Amino acid sequence: MDFDEFREFGHASIEFLINYLSGIRERDVLPTTTPYAVINQLPKEIPEQPEHWREVLKDLENIILPGLTHWQSPYFNAFYPSSSSAGSIIGELLIAGIGVLGFSWICSPACTELEVVVMDWLAKFLKLPAHFLHASEGPGGGVIQGSASEAVLVAVLAAREQAVVSYRESHPEVSESEVRGRLVAYSSDQSNSCIEKAGVLAAIPIRLLPAGEDFVLRGETLKQAIEEDVAAGKIPVICVATLGTTGTCAYDDVESLSAVCEEFKVWLHVDAAYAGGAFALDECSDLRKGLDRVDSLNFNLHKFMLVNFDCSAMWLRDANKVVDSFNVDRIYLKHKHEGQSQIPDFRHWQIPLGRRFRALKVWITFRTLGAEGLRNHVRKHIELAKQFEQLVVKDSRFEMVAPRALGLVCFRPKGDNEITTQLLQRLMDRKKIYMVKAEHAGRQFLRFVVCGMDSKASDIDFAWEEIESQLTDLQREQSLVIRKAGNVADLTQHFQIHLTNENTTLEKYQ
Amino acid sequence: MDFDEFREFGHASIEFLINYLSGIRERDVLPTTTPYAVINQLPKEIPEQPEHWREVLKDLENIILPGLTHWQSPYFNAFYPSSSSAGSIIGELLIAGIGVLGFSWICSPACTELEVVVMDWLAKFLKLPAHFLHASEGPGGGVIQGSASEAVLVAVLAAREQAVVSYRESHPEVSESEVRGRLVAYSSDQSNSCIEKAGVLAAIPIRLLPAGEDFVLRGETLKQAIEEDVAAGKIPVICVATLGTTGTCAYDDVESLSAVCEEFKVWLHVDAAYAGGAFALDECSDLRKGLDRVDSLNFNLHKFMLVNFDCSAMWLRDANKVVDSFNVDRIYLKHKHEGQSQIPDFRHWQIPLGRRFRALKVWITFRTLGAEGLRNHVRKHIELAKQFEQLVVKDSRFEMVAPRALGLVCFRPKGDNEITTQLLQRLMDRKKIYMVKAEHAGRQFLRFVVCGMDSKASDIDFAWEEIESQLTDLQREQSLVIRKAGNVADLTQHFQIHLTNENTTLEKYQ
């Protein structure tokens, strides 16, 4: 490596990012591109000879950036946030430059130990039960997974193996394959697709139980399902509850679910991928109810802690249940301190063998922002969502679909689904803001999520003006369509009626 | 974000890395640390107020670096390489700063399209069969997974679901759970632990078939196992072959395995995590034999392509087999171009939903090094390993355990396993170089792997001098132990015999 060139390239890239991020509001959040537009601008093979990094940055600016959806823009209001921060960005630089892997303690001790430290920091910050701390006596602790999907899958797989072992202990006459064929798991019909996918991957049917009208899954629904299944000879394995569903940020009733899970010895996992950040706030302490009775939970740091994806925190009440399920060691992975201390070899806590030094970016982000800064960030998202909610409520053409929850507002233009679809399509075509829609009980709605590295009150006003003005335009155009339909109707005997309808429409919407 | 501070922190971190990487030979490759040493130096909670980034870099230097095993050091000769490069390090900085996710085309078109481009670049560079290219007609293509473990697991899971569907089509009378209970998979007893783990996770027993004396798994062994299993009513699902086993970098006989897999309609996956890099070299073209008949393969770019972990390339002959197995969509993930083009929504090709913009670091690395630079890097590792091999062969106290393969030399001091163990422990205690041992047929041996960002011939000499001088010292000490044993023996009637033995020993080793 030529360090002079590395220096120049590095410094130029820092400037590149400052230029990109400081000017991100000037870009349409959605790209003006069509499939293959980027592919067709690039050569078909690796260049035989090295190219100068300046050429690469030029193409990044001219070919790649125009093809991106800008997730760090405050006008990105889709999905949930995937936010970054200075500390986290520089953290990734340092992780890559230092370039260690941390699958066992010996293969880079500080990599494992810093993860133990930051997971305990985070558990305390989020006021989680003490048994989730590495520092507590007992087999609990936290680990950084790559994504919520992986955390959920780890919980499902570990619960599966525990259930098989435990059932066969009490029913040695039943074959392993028969036990596996009778396993069943539970979640809400509001839960994230990754939970259904975990069921597919684990080869366990996951029953997506109906949430209530308020989108909440409760113990009574779970209990009924488990009782049905047990009566039919099934073996319940795990329930995955959600705190902050993807559709409406609903909070499943963890307390009543945990009581049922304890009764039937079912693993309870909580997917708090989004809402977990609010555990840190005293005003949101209700969200933590029942967490002392769950077996595992996960929270995505990119959603509220300004640590860039990928970084999904997972805590286990008894990590041995995962380790015992996943351990397949080889001599080349052994080391002399193994099993002699409470420091985990995290490879047994996850699906892959290899693991990046993700704890470093967490450590840098937390230190450079401080606990106060992290709490303020969550509070800011809540305040901005409240601001947006007020704007929705004040405009009688719109209706709320669910209560605002943290940084999410679920709303729709009144009327049938078609208006929602058309409004969203219009907004997507204009590319000024980016939302996605969701559906519940046949009713489609829009999800406005506060995202971005640095959203401000003026960004909320910008988004609202875009939304409401596009609805106005849409309504005007629709009335013109009706007028045209009326003109066709001139030719019919219904002329007078159509004209009346049209006028009514115009009056109402203009 | 305060961009002035970001600039200062960023530039200082670039300098930090230059300082670290340029001086990496001055550090012991293994840290002088004990469990909890890092944990005990750090505070127990997130600081309430932000700290200055200078404090963070200071602690990184004084607390974290001394606790690390230095994977980028040329004195790191353990496992397999996990190498980085300037382009890749800066690539991670840019990935984090741009901060997009790419689970569907619309959620960041260039993220998906650049991955299509670089995976085709890499497939051509490695001279893979054309059906693995996105640009070819048909359902094949490449995707970046997080690790080899995940790639193998994706193959095993997709093969499992295909096998269940296919068996039930021809045997509708057999229940799904019975089919699942009869599945079986195959690999070699030399394959990486991640393959056995994939079996555990997928709930399929993986039979680790005995490799030959030369560590190679061949079709005849597989055929015999499959015939036994089919006769016993089992349903063979997948065989995971390895090109470049972890122990000795042996190459399974893909041609004969593929013939058997075709005969029995068994998915053939090739784990070429390490050796895949050599596909690019004409002089290694034998390694590619039979690849036109495999269903999927994976190759780790951090092992030979100077793209830092995580970045595991995987190619599928028919990606629909994975997509059909894993697809669990929701309305909020839909977009208007979906299914209209051949551009994949990569979330269906992998386990997690979220995905980083890893293609960017691949693109930057490949362009800044060029195809020639990448080939030269692989060739350099081979040359350095040859240099090491010569040193082993010339010293009659050592023996080779397997033929040198690419950048790996498997060797041992002659004698029983205890000498190997003691020599390695001595080297580990001195921390100058880092190797791990492996075992085959009861015989333990050392693996010397060329690793690091920038290894040179002088680094090989350094390592060899360390190894052979430590064996000399070990032998001297052992002879002293024998002398002491002799002194104790003074008290016995065997005095004269022991003294003679001792003298013989001293003469031999001094």
Task: Please provide a written account of the structure.
Chains A, B: One of its GO terms (cellular component) is cytoplasm. The structure is a homodimer. Helices cover about 45% and strands about 10% of the residues of chain A. The termini of chain A are far apart. Chain A has helices at about 5-20, 55-65, 85-100, 110-125, 150-170, 175-180, 195-200, 220-230, 255-265, 300-305, 320-325, 360-395, 415-430, 455-490, 495-510; strands spanning about 140-145, 185-190, 205-210, 235-240, 265-270, 295-300, 310-315, 400, 410-415, 435-440, 445-450. In chain A, the strands form two sheets. In chain A, strands 1-7-6-5-4-2-3 form a seven-stranded mixed beta sheet, with helices on both faces. Residues about 490-510 of chain A have low confidence and may be disordered. With about 500 residues, chain A is an alpha/beta fold. The first copy, chain A, is built from 15 helices and eleven strands. Chain A folds into three domains: about 5-70, dopa decarboxylase, N-terminal domain (Up-down Bundle); about 100-355, Aspartate Aminotransferase, domain 2; about 375-510, Aspartate Aminotransferase, domain 1. Chains A and B meet through helix 1, helix 2, helix 3, helix 4 and helix 5 of A and helix 1, helix 2, helix 3, helix 4 and helix 5 of B.
